[in-house]
Amino acid sequence: MSAPVVFIDGDQGTTGLQIHDRLRDRTDIRLFTLAAAERKDARRRAEAINACDIAILCLPDAAAREAVSAIVNPAVRVIDASSAHRTRPGWTYGFPEMAPEQAGQIANASRVSNPGCYPTGAVGLLRPLAQAGLIPADYAISIHAVSGYSGRGRAGVEEYEGPGAANAPAYQVYGLELAHKHAPEIQQHACLAQRPIFVPAYGAFRQGIVLTVPLALRQLAPGVDGATVHACLARHYAGARHVRVLPLHESAALTHLDPQALNGTNDMHLGVFHHVENGQVLLSAVFDNLGKGASGAAVQNLDLMLARQ
User: Fold this and answer.
1) Model's pTM, two decimal places?
2) Of 52, 58, 117, 232, which is the active-site residue?
3) To which CATH superfamily is domain 5-115+294-306 assigned?
4) 117 catalytic per annotation
5) pLDDT of residue 41
6) Where is the Semialdehyde dehydrogenase NAD-binding domain (predicted)?
7) pLDDT number for residue 22
8) Which regions in the chain score pLDDT beneath 70?
9) DSSP state string for 26-80
């Protein structure tokens, strides 16, 4: 039996390049990409995607939808790294640790939508708490996250590494219109009743994310405290290979969070910080926006799908 063909459509961007780097030396698959002269040839791209076993789409949203619409071979399976299908019916959300049954659903799916980088942290923190009833349905969730500039794709890399890099800002908050495309994705997959306030930012470092969610204990379910929140997360991720909930004593010893701490890995660390007297809890997620937030997650999903190929 020949090795399955994995086609990367769009391997020139930051996510596609990293996926290619993670897969290029593997012998259990046949990796395929288009030559530069063929990338804008719609006919050639349609031929390629219909000839593969699994296609990984690293394309802008519109191009990803176009690529999927070109599939006529029912045997072709897809991992879409764009945001085009993350809230669409019929697509399986590619966050294996999100629910006990999620990895199995991904393994059997024909259409998998890779999570966004920020939603990986937000959903990872909030969904277990929402499903356990620890966060009331009407709680006004606010999320702040800082990503490396590679989160902007090639434009971000050019701004910070190109000829004008000396003029690149050290820090910039964006999404000020409060209409960021990740908010509906977070709301749906974190099981939130209301749209969260999401405030993203870029820092002058290449990759990595720190995401935080503040909680006021007086607005949570009666009797809930930091230890309750931590125990819920610890139970949910017990035994997870790529998601670790820091023990409370380990979190208490931290004085800062380094967004680059897990760069180059597919891991995510979740933390719970609490101040009993002030009645406040801070949730945190640290991970690589190009790892667990993008290419690492895609390869994790690919491996699950290959196991059932």
Assistant:
1) 0.95
2) 117
3) NAD(P)-binding Rossmann-like Domain (3.40.50.720)
4) yes
5) 86
6) 5-106
7) 95
8) 1
9) -SSSEEE---GGGTT-HHHHHHHHHT-SEEEE-S-HHHHHHHHHT---TT-EEEE
